[in-house]
Design brief:
Number of domains: 1
Low-confidence stretches: none
CATH topology: Rossmann fold
Structural class: alpha/beta
CATH superfamily: NAD(P)-binding Rossmann-like Domain
Number of strands: 7
Keywords: Oxidoreductase
Family: Belongs to the short-chain dehydrogenases/reductases (SDR) family.
Helix content: 40-55%
Protein name: NAD(P)-dependent dehydrogenase (Short-subunit alcohol dehydrogenase family)
Radius of gyration: 18 Å
Oligomer: single chain
Order of helices and strands: EHEHEHEHEHEHHHE
InterPro entries: KR_dom, NAD(P)-bd_dom_sf, Sc_DH/Rdtase_CS, SDR_fam
Length: 258
């Protein structure tokens, strides 16, 4: 790991940090000197393996299990992180769930699962983190390129992610009293296991003969998928001192889709 010191000693919680984009963010922040709390919902083995990798490389990391669909769990998680790391300076809310489905197939259970994770989970972990965070802290939430695109059968997911830019815009002046900056990142198609697994089942009646990966590449001005490290680099920038004057905004790291 190439180490820099731009986040040296900063204590950061990354939700959904055990795989995909979250794991790339964890590795990036640890390499920049941060002490990282890796939150996971169910895959303990992946979280423990990542933490072991980082600690073996001389970084400081610890794993914390929590399902963030309830406000109480978010506060319990933050309390545990503060007790372990001695405080909290930064939050990256990365945990999220995907959904593809036609309007007539959407159930109340689908709605609850998507909105409790993608909206309530992000709101309540932000609430808990702000209560424990040092003044001058930084927060990055997770939106999606779907907020600005029309994607077939993606209505429920896009609606949940559309709440995030509104959330950061409205929280920015509220948190400014303590010099806490809050922003969001809006990734496009990223080469993660979750994205590829949903993509394998993606269908559109007018595009049935177009391979999923070719379809997505054609929608990107750069002609490629993002790699998790591409997204992690933008998150690290938003947490850095160089981004101190950026708040209330959503950065579209989508390869030019939107």
């Amino acid at each position: 790991m190439t180490s820099t010191s731009s986040l040296a000693g900063k204590r950061v919680l990354v939700t959904g940090g055990n795989s995909g984009i979250g794991a790339a963010i964890v590795r990036r922040l640890a390499a920049q000197g941060a002490k990282v709390a890796v939150n996971y919902r169910s895959d303990k083995a992946a979280a423990d393996a990542l933490v072991g990798e980082l600690n073996s490389a001389g970084c400081t990391a610890a794993a914390f299990q929590a399902d963030l669909t309830a406000a109480g769990r978010a506060h319990e998680l933050v309390d545990a992180v503060v007790a372990e790391l001695g405080g909290l300076d930064l939050l990256v809310s990365n945990a999220g769930v995907e959904h593809f489905g036609a309007l007539e197939t959407i159930t109340e259970a689908d709605f609850d699962r998507i909105f409790l994770t993608n909206v309530a989970g992000q709101l309540f972990v932000t609430q808990a983190a702000v209560a424990a965070m040092t003044d001058g802290g930084r927060i990055v939430l997770s939106a999606s390129v779907s907020v600005r695109l029309s994607v077939y059968h993606h209505t429920l997911y896009a609606a949940s992610k559309a709440a995030i830019p509104a959330m950061v815009r409205n929280l920015a002046p509220e948190l400014a009293d303590r010099n806490i900056a809050i922003n969001a990142i809006s990734p496009g198609a990223t080469a993660t296991r979750m994205a590829m697994s949903y993509g394998a089942n993606y269908t559109h009646p007018a595009l049935a003969d177009v391979p999923f990966d070719a379809l997505l590449r054609s929608m990107s001005a750069l002609g490629r998928f993002a790699q998790p490290d591409d997204i992690a680099a933008v998150v690290a920038f938003l947490l850095s001192p160089e981004a101190a004057h950026i708040t209330g905004t959503t950065i579209e790291a989508d390869g030019g889709w939107s």
